[in-house]
Write a structure and sequence with these properties.
With 128 residues, this protein is mainly α. It has helices spanning 7-16, 28-39, 50-80, 82-86, 90-106, 108-127. Helix 3 packs antiparallel against helix 5 (90-106) and helix 3 (50-80) packs antiparallel against helix 6.
Amino acid sequence: MSQIETDHEFKTRMAAEGRAIYVPGKTDEQIAAEQERKAAPKPVTLHLSESDLTGIMQALPQTFDLVSDLARACEYLGGSGLADDVASDLAPVLRLFARACQAAEAQELESLFKLETKLRDAVQGEGA
């Protein structure tokens, strides 16, 4: 009774006999599955005390408002002409500061907003 060789065994035997070159490795499907696994977001457990969580939940909305208000105030002062009365160089500085605040609002605060949303969902999920 003869045994049937696996693909790996056949290729290894052919390479050993000098009839082929065989470099064992992963198939395209295995590589794709591995890349998909690595790309998938991994869940992270965050341990906070209730007081820490309360502080964060109160601070996040205030942080959003603060940066937004700073951007609007600087934009207004830089474009209104009020700053021109104080110093002619102040208006461009205020406009640049407003742009920096708006960039932070669009980028860094987006991450904080996601954190706030996840925390709020987690807290509401525990109470449900």
